[in-house]
Amino acid sequence: MSIMPVLSDEEAGAAARAVFDDIRDTRQTDFVNNFWRVLANDPALLARTWDKLKAVMGPGSIDPLVKEMIYVAVSVTNGCQYCIHSHTAAARAKGMTDQQLMELMAVVGAANETNRLVNGLQVPVDEAFLSDPKA
Amino acid sequence: MSIMPVLSDEEAGAAARAVFDDIRDTRQTDFVNNFWRVLANDPALLARTWDKLKAVMGPGSIDPLVKEMIYVAVSVTNGCQYCIHSHTAAARAKGMTDQQLMELMAVVGAANETNRLVNGLQVPVDEAFLSDPKA
Amino acid sequence: MSIMPVLSDEEAGAAARAVFDDIRDTRQTDFVNNFWRVLANDPALLARTWDKLKAVMGPGSIDPLVKEMIYVAVSVTNGCQYCIHSHTAAARAKGMTDQQLMELMAVVGAANETNRLVNGLQVPVDEAFLSDPKA
Amino acid sequence: MSIMPVLSDEEAGAAARAVFDDIRDTRQTDFVNNFWRVLANDPALLARTWDKLKAVMGPGSIDPLVKEMIYVAVSVTNGCQYCIHSHTAAARAKGMTDQQLMELMAVVGAANETNRLVNGLQVPVDEAFLSDPKA
Amino acid sequence: MSIMPVLSDEEAGAAARAVFDDIRDTRQTDFVNNFWRVLANDPALLARTWDKLKAVMGPGSIDPLVKEMIYVAVSVTNGCQYCIHSHTAAARAKGMTDQQLMELMAVVGAANETNRLVNGLQVPVDEAFLSDPKA
Amino acid sequence: MSIMPVLSDEEAGAAARAVFDDIRDTRQTDFVNNFWRVLANDPALLARTWDKLKAVMGPGSIDPLVKEMIYVAVSVTNGCQYCIHSHTAAARAKGMTDQQLMELMAVVGAANETNRLVNGLQVPVDEAFLSDPKA
Fold first, then answer.
1. Of A134, B36, D39, D46, whose CA is between 20 and 30 Å from E76?
2. Within 13 Å, how many C-alpha atoms sit on residue E117's CB side?
3. Could you say which of D79, D88, D109 has the minimum Cβ distance to residue F80?
4. ipTM of the complex
């Protein structure tokens, strides 16, 4: 059960509906998922969050499908069920195959394992990894 | 300070040295970083971990550079300093530009933020995201 | 499904019931929520945990409503569904408005984002932040 | 060692310097801390992050000092050293006493403990906590 | 709802079924739980994961029941519901009593609390804890 | 650098010194590590934390060495450097061998990996794991 109501188009105020419209326009779909409908309880937070995601997840120097995979990797590490479902769906819509999904999970699993082996043994960072970042 | 000694080639036993040799062979470099030298205190753990990473991070349906970016994303989310340094170096060696690095961080930051907005508001998963995975 | 039974007043032993009574007394309500009823399977753990929370969450130099908000912030970051529901309810009972709730989530989201930007880029701590804590 | 260079005013481009100026203006200080100087490697990310924090952390329905305490609580839970130092400094600048700092830590510690007791025992959410959020 | 299908013996390919058979053989039961049936969508990942767990969780210098308790402790800290249920069941099957379960939770809770007190106060590591690991 | 001063015996107040004395008495050593010396800035928090740890980590239904291993497992998962060093030292003092330490890390690593495979694939909990906890 949600902490704040999932607002329909009618329940959302004008400012929130304007964001819904931009989401529909940008994604070329009439579907506005629950995340935005709950954020609509704070139209300024909704607008800021949507503007940020549009800027971050859109075309750039990293492929949008790769960005979705990175999003899934973080969500899996944090155990965010909603985010795993929504961003896996987004990655699939952008072309992720089942084979790639399984391979993504294997990488995420391995990283979480070695992160802890490193933590646990307190491995000192190699000098070779600390060279001047400007060089 | 490491919890277990960082073993030189001389200090490592024959089983561990055989893994070091395979690392050098696979990566085409003489450099064996501290992670492996600390794992060498348990040659079976060293061998299993290296075999796994070689299988997971090698060529497959996801590009090796993308896999390194995913590894970095997980390590950043977990706050593993060593892993951030070593896998950023690996990603750079595979071609990641500074622009891509900054964009990767932006995606990881955004995912960590929205993961918590979703958690905090307990957004219910949309039916649309729960369609039959076999379909 | 709970890992250990949710004990009713009748099922709980005398030591656990004494804690239930103190909870009712302190909160001025007959309601004892499931957290305490599951902890009741280990009366010593129940008593220690209740005594601690009573000491920590009660009046002090930080306002009790603010303490509940901090509790929610931690629970959201950790993704603890039960804790998010129970402490949001507690914060609302102490006067948190919907506007404050949304603002709290915005702060928690932002902190989780910048925590990762800092991790990912390994930003060195400014000297200005490391001044003598006794000064 | 930072992953990307900590840019001085001279090294930062015009877009980044404009953000630095707004930081100085808003905070009424000449000091621009390393977080912003590293983000300056991606001026768009820098501008978005600063605009967001200015909006989120400024005056609203929650007191700015309380917001800083919430920020510290998240940073402590995530173990972000830089963020703990910078936001503790910010909270102290806004009036947090040593007594409040210790009390904040006690709340954060208690929340992290009970989050795990709840997780571990899989305590079911009480019906009383799931009442209609619109009610 | 699972992201990938939970494969029955008939749906799983020959390679996956061979792993299922080894699981049945090793555990002396006909039951193969869902974790393995979902991993079966990537037979190589299934085989690697099973081989690893068999090696790690089997007899060694740490008692198998203690290993299951450690597994539960990690799963509770990460909030992995499935893992808490499956490894608590495994620990119980190996002899863990209810009293030990409650005591395990108390230790996990306490560790999560003091981890944050240490983080939050940035306690410097004592020299005494940093003695030469080879000594 | 610590956020609050590391108090010497002389700087600590009488209430804190009484706790230091009990630590010395219980552990049969003159050494009081930094964790307690920083908590001493809030004598009530110091006393509560020490009393709790003494109750939780002492003899019970789980062996004290096993409890220390569980503590290390949590600290490694959370990446708490101080806690890893202090509780590894405590486990060694109670008899943990290097072989056991490496095996502990292998279990912690494996658990962190499979926790994420389960999260990522959203594996449904088997009915067999959800049997009546009272049965």
1. B36
2. 28
3. D79
4. 0.96
The b/e string for F26-61 (b: 16+ C-beta within 10 A; e otherwise) is eeeeeebbbbbbbbbbbbbbbbbbbebbeebbeebe
SS3 (DSSP) at C8: coil
Asked whether the CA dihedral F61, F34, F99, E93 is positive or negative, the reply is positive
Q: Which tens digits make up the pLDDT trace of C1-25? A: 899 999 999 999 999 999 999 999 9
The C-alpha atoms of residue D97 and residue D83 are separated, in whole angstroms, by 18
CB-closest option in F72, F81, F122 to A81: F122
Closest by CA to A104, choosing from A64, A72, A65, A63, is A72
Alpha carbon distance E81, E65 (integer Å): 20
Amino acid in position B102: M
Q: Measure C117 CA to nearest chain B CA, in Å.
A: 6
Q: Under a CB-based contact definition with an 8 Å cutoff, are residues E72 and E87 in contact?
A: yes
The torsion of the CA quartet F9, F13, F17, F19, rounded to 10 degrees, works out to -140
Whether residue C135 is predicted with pLDDT greater than 50 in this model: the reply is: no
pTM here is 0.97
Kindly list the residues from chain F whose CB atom is less than 8 angstroms away from the CB atom of residue B3.
84-85, 88, 101
When scoring A118, A127, A130, A131 by the number of chain B Cβ atoms within 10 A, the one with the most, hence best to mutate, is A118
Q: In order of start, what are the domains of chain B with their CATH numbers?
A: 1-57 (1.20.1290.10), 60-122 (1.20.1290.10)
| Interchain CB contact of F128 with C (< 8 Å) | no
Chain F interface includes C13 (CB < 8 A): no
Show the beta-strand stretches assigned E in chain C: none
The rounded distance, in Å, linking the Cα atoms of F81 and E109 is: 18
Q: Quote the tokens at residue E77.
A: 């800290």
